[in-house]
Amino acid sequence: MMDPGEAINVQDLFSIKGKVALVTGGSRGIGLMIARGYLESGAKVYISSRKKDVCDQTAHKLSEIGECISAPADLSTVEGCKYLADQLKAREEKLHILVNNAGAAWGAALGEFPESGWDKVMDTNVKGIFFLTQHLIPLLENAASPADPARVINIGSIDGIKVPRVENYSYSPSKAAVHHLTRVLAVRLGSRNITVNAVAPGPFESQMTRWMFEHMLPEIEAQCPLKRVGAPADMAGVALYLASRAGAYVNGVVIPVDGGICIN
Residue 177 belongs to a domain with what CATH number? Predict the structure, then answer.
């Protein structure tokens, strides 16, 4: 049994120095915020996105901070998930942190919402998370120990917790599915020393939120008890917590990072 009075090295508590991380959708938005935070904390980071040129350019820029490697892939297909996993397996023996951030959205009126918009969002946001995680379990297990598990961090959304104001009919259910898939995988993978948690972001600046920020920013800020939108440090902070020793005993939870919008 652990000694409850055992000394804690606070300096190491939030460290991920020397760990290997994969951040999908890491070329922009929330994924970029997390990737940069991990690099600045001493991790080796792979970033993936569907567009190779954008992924390459972002990785090159981030390499000014630390070791960042571009690994483009289309994660809306099982084949794309396996391709990315195989790329990692060819280069690494261990993967300490998997951030499933790649996502898609689609907006249309209820009577006009197309099947293609439904399928694209569900395939990327839900199917992609499951199958990429499935294919990377061996690398995650290689990095895992009881005291310092491997980490899977899924990026959901507060739109998966509350009904959004915009008409994005496939996005909200997809993020609710991400939250529950997180719980299911947390139970299944816990015995393998792999924790699975989710972050549910509120409004952060990204390509996905550009329209809302251009047309609804005052309303969004007014709805938030903190009266502001999220900053990069807000997202990097929770991602570091979940990936470090500080979050080693956190499993199967969904953490809203929204300034309190969900409770307002």
Answer: 3.40.50.720
